[in-house]
Amino acid sequence: SDLMALALSCDRTRVITFMLGNGATERSHPFLTVDGRAITDAYHPLTHSAQNDSWRKKINEISRWEIARFAYFVGKLKAASLLDSTIVFLSSEMSDAASHAHADMPVLLAGKLVGGSKLGTHHRTKGTFGQLYVAMLNALGVPTTRFGDDGDRPLML
User: How far is the C-alpha of 120 from the C-alpha of 66, rounded, in Å?
Assistant: First the structure.
């Protein structure tokens, strides 16, 4: 996060793509704990056992850690006065990992270029990721009406 914020603040790059890990990873998180015990289970199997209370606690702790990393990065951008000219996008590859569902995907956007949305608001929208990307590109000054197979117009935020 520090390096990404520094690269943006020095104008060494204007676009960054970063992935903490894909959903099929076998990575464990032994530096995190639940009920005083390290999370040593592989991530992917944990996501398929949401009905198991112990495993749900572990997934929730991993999710909290990931969101805290996102908040730290956004805080670095804010401290460097970069949020006025930035869009930061966070999402998952699934809305429900156990069923591999892609409907009703969770998305978190940060930065003042997000559009007409008031900061700190929640929106439930109907649309596609392609339409969201068209809206984000337009907000960044890249005029386009299409992105991918399903981005046929900008998503209204």
Answer: 19
Reduce the DSSP state of residue 17 to 3 states and report it: coil
Tokens, residue 29:
């998180």
Six-digit token pair at 67?
């969101």
pLDDT tens, residue by residue, 53-94? 888 899 999 999 999 999 999 999 999 999 888 999 999 877
Residue 138 near residue 98, CB atoms below 8 Å: no
> What is the rounded CA–CA span in Å between residue 155 and residue 133?
8
Cα-Cα-Cα-Cα dihedral sign, residues 55, 22, 123, 16: positive
The model's pLDDT over 119-150, given as tens digits with 9 standing for 90+, comes to 677 778 888 899 999 999 998 899 999 999 99
Angle at 73 between CA 79 and CA 11, to 5 degrees: 65
Distances (CA, A) of 100 to 1, 67, 119: 29, 21, 31
Instruction: Let me know if 127 is exposed, middle or buried by CB neighbors in 10 A (0-12, 13-18, 19+).
Output: middle
